[in-house]
Design a protein that fits this description.
By secondary structure, the chain is of the alpha+beta class. It has a single domain, classed as Up-down Bundle (Outer membrane efflux proteins (OEP)), CATH 1.20.1600.10. About 65% of the residues lie in helices and about 10% in strands. The strands form two sheets. It has a four-stranded antiparallel beta sheet with strand order 2-3-5-6, with no helix packed on it. Strands 1-4 form a two-stranded parallel sheet.
Length: about 450
């Protein structure tokens, strides 16, 4: 079995689980939501992305254009017939034929060589653009997947907050009725509960939007995607000073510029250089329904054949001169666009590097706040069980009430959500820097290997 056949078999075997999963979800979309790995979501997004399909169409078009530039050197064979519909009147100058065949091909042309090189660079650019479109689809799917997982965890924390807020409202209701706390404390507790409800509704809306985004990217049924946290590989702690590779966008822009330069060079070479073509013709003449032989001294033979080389040297062609100037301007524009893409990528790397340092510190601060809030819960619980140990004399610290525990728990859940937000922003920035440094494909390989 050849290597190509082995690769095809491996691709089919890797596609089988994805196709089976998609088929099962399509048959029973309303049964249960299933955990879907990040690798599966990325694969499906890359296969169903409209941008990827458009890039594939552009690649096929570029390959056809390359074949078209080469095929001019292959003979073009044409068959036909020239039988008259009615008997001619007088001398028409034509030779009626039962059957004729012509062969034409380009033999030598220096501009055509440049056009072939331009088309070849166009194919490479289209291929790199396809890789870029696949990376874009993978990036969008990965970011939506990570954010949906984060929002789901925040929803759980918010629901816990609402439970704690409900207990706090009940406690404040009792204390207000007993005259221990003022009515303002009860109203404040109700306000906090309402704000948490609003936060939960906002998170639910965000989760629905992210789920719809993933459905649009993967074409899986609505509600079928539940993120599997274990399938998310660690995003490398990459820095902007690490070795940089050209991104696919930059490579595609440079290849497109190369294609334009070859095209401009071909147009510039058109004038004053010879082009050689080969021509051959066979004609089976007929005297049916015509009197052509009456006008010739020797009767026209039944079988006629001619061949030869046609040499053309363009000497004065203002149209092609203008076309050469147009192509040169296009080449210059493509070069500037490639340089601009490189500069913009460098600016993005610098910006992301600075943001990463800030986000890394913010994530550390949020994590420490959440840990402190956890310790405060333990301290409050200990004081509620054993007292504060300060006695009841003048200047003694007042004993904590049960509402202190609920406030501490609400605060801890809030700090937990802030830590999740900081971690998500840090992950998104790291993924963005991976793309800007040209290492996105390495992470995708790690994702599929997980």
């Amino acid at each position: 079995m050849t290597t190509q056949e082995n690769e095809k078999r491996q691709r089919k075997s890797s596609l089988a689980p994805i196709l089976l999963f998609a088929a099962l979800l399509a048959v029973a979309p309303g049964l249960v939501s299933a955990q879907v790995s990040l690798a599966t979501v990325v694969d499906l997004a890359q296969r169903n992305s409209s941008a990827v399909k458009l890039a594939e169409a552009d690649q096929r078009k570029a390959e056809a254009s390359l074949a078209e530039t080469k095929d001019v050197f292959f003979p073009v064979l044409t068959f036909g017939s020239g039988l008259p519909a009615l008997p001619p009147v007088g001398f028409t100058g034509g030779v009626p034929s039962i059957f004729n065949a012509t062969v034409q091909s380009l033999v030598f042309s220096l501009p055509q060589k440049q056009y072939i090189d331009a088309a070849r660079s166009g194919v490479k650019a289209a291929s790199v653009n396809l890789k870029s479109a696949r990376e874009d689809a993978a990036f969008d799917a990965a970011v939506a997947y990570l954010e949906l997982d984060c929002v789901n965890r925040q929803l759980e924390a918010t629901q816990q907050q609402e439970d704690f807020a409900g207990r706090l409202v009940s406690i404040e209701q009792d204390r207000a009725e007993a005259g221990v706390d003022p009515l303002a404390d009860l109203l404040q507790a109700r306000l906090s509960a309402a704000q948490m409800k609003l936060q939960r509704l906002h998170l639910q809306t965000r989760a629905a939007t992210l789920a719809a985004t993933l459905v649009s990217l993967t074409r899986l049924p609505a509600g079928a995607i539940v993120p599997d946290r274990a399938s998310i590989p660690e995003i490398p702690q990459i820095r902007g000073d690490q070795p940089q590779q050209k991104t696919n966008d930059i490579r595609a822009a440079q290849l497109a510029a190369d294609s334009r330069h070859h095209m401009a060079k071909g147009d510039a070479l058109y004038e004053f250089l010879p082009q050689i073509s080969f021509n051959a013709e066979y004609l089976a003449a007929t005297s049916l329904l015509n009197n052509a032989n009456d006008y010739y001294q020797i009767p026209i033979p039944a079988n006629n054949f001619s061949s030869g080389f046609s040499i053309q040297v363009p000497f004065f062609d203002l149209g092609h001169r203008a076309k050469a100037r147009e192509s040169a301007a296009d080449a210059l524009r493509a070069t500037v666009e490639a340089e601009q893409a490189q500069r913009l990528n460098e600016i993005q790397i610098a910006e992301l590097t600075g943001n990463l340092r800030e986000l890394d510190t913010l994530a550390e601060i949020a994590s420490l706040k959440q840990q402190i809030a956890t310790q405060q819960i333990a301290a409050v619980q200990a004081q509620l069980e054993t007292g504060n140990g300060s006695g009841t004399g003048p200047g003694a610290q007042p004993q904590l009430s049960p509402k202190a525990e609920q406030l501490a728990r609400i605060d801890e859940r809030q700090k937990f959500q802030e830590a999740l937000d900081s971690s998500l922003e840090l992950s998104k920035a790291r993924l963005g820097l991976l793309r800007a440094l040209g290492h996105m494909e390495d992470w995708l390989h790690e994702l599929h290997a997980k």
